[in-house]
Amino acid sequence: MFESFELAADAGGGGGSIVSLILPLVLMFAIFYFLLIRPQQKKQKTRNSMLGSLKKGDKVVTIGGLHGTIMEITDDIVVLRVNDVTKLTFDRSSISHATKVSEGEA
């Protein structure tokens, strides 16, 4: 019984033990930040800038895979022309990626 108290006292002693406990947590957070959080923030920033720069005539692909050309656009609604007669209304956030159309093609 006395031996277990001595082992417990030996294991918890020293001023460097708190640093040895915190250092792995700090390193783990830094790894998560540089491998997961920062790339996701960059990706979200580029997506937001793409959504903000959409304009009439751009060719886009929705998250569901539908290809179309923007006919009308507001702050949160996009009307896409899928073929010559079909127009579909989507949320702006449902646009996956866009291809800019040059002035000569339009």
Structure write-up:
By secondary structure, the chain is an alpha+beta fold. The protein has two domains: 2-50; 55-99, SH3 type barrels (Roll), CATH 2.30.30. The chain has helices spanning 2-12, 17-52; strands at 59-62, 67-73, 77-81, 87-91, 95-99. The protein has a five-stranded antiparallel sheet, with helices on one face.
Strand order of the largest sheet: 4-3-2-1-5
For the secondary structure, the number of strands is: 5
* Number of structural units classed as domains: 2
Low-confidence stretches: none
**Over all CA atoms, what is the radius of gyration?**
28 Å
Query: What is the mean pLDDT?
Result: 85
Which outline best applies?
A: rod-shaped
- The share of residues in helices is 40-55%
In whole angstroms, the N-to-C terminal distance is 87 Å
The proportion of strand residues reads 15-25%
| Largest beta-sheet characterization | 5 strands, antiparallel
Q: Which class of secondary structure composition applies to the elements?
A: alpha+beta
How many H/I helical runs? 2
Order of helices and strands: HHEEEEE
Keywords: Cell membrane, Membrane, Protein transport, Translocation, Transmembrane, Transmembrane helix, Transport
Subcellular location: Cell membrane
Membrane topology: Single-pass membrane protein
Main location: membrane
Characteristic terms for this protein:
alpha+beta; SH3 type barrels; rod-shaped; Preprotein_translocase_YajC
